[in-house]
Amino acid sequence: MQIAVDTNFWLIPGQFRVDIFAEFERLCGAKTQVIAFSATLDELKKLTTTAKTIAQRQAAKLGLQLIKAKKVHIISVEHGYADDAIVTYANKSQTPIAVATQDIKLKSRLKPLGVAFIVLRARSHLEIINQSYK
User: pLDDT of 61-93, one tens digit each?
Assistant: First the structure.
């Protein structure tokens, strides 16, 4: 299974001290591939300087460090928003995919595709929603 991680989800380790990789393994097993999109990296880099608070800027920096340290598979997109890249990828994916996001609008775009969502619960752990994924 692949887990596509949205920009807002990369902020969770810095904001809430949740080990998202351990949680992904707990929820989906060891044979998961975490993926991010180049647009996500661009958004995180921008947040390191433009986020409203120091804590948010630091969380974005930590997210970028985790992507590098965990050797997350990066899928290159020429331009656009991370949300658009995630929807396009989920629509074309031939393998089971879950999307880790807190974004309500992105979830509503993905729901018709039958994609599973991974969300933060109680600021302490992750949960899978919509088990009828592709």
Answer: 999 999 999 999 999 987 788 999 999 999 998
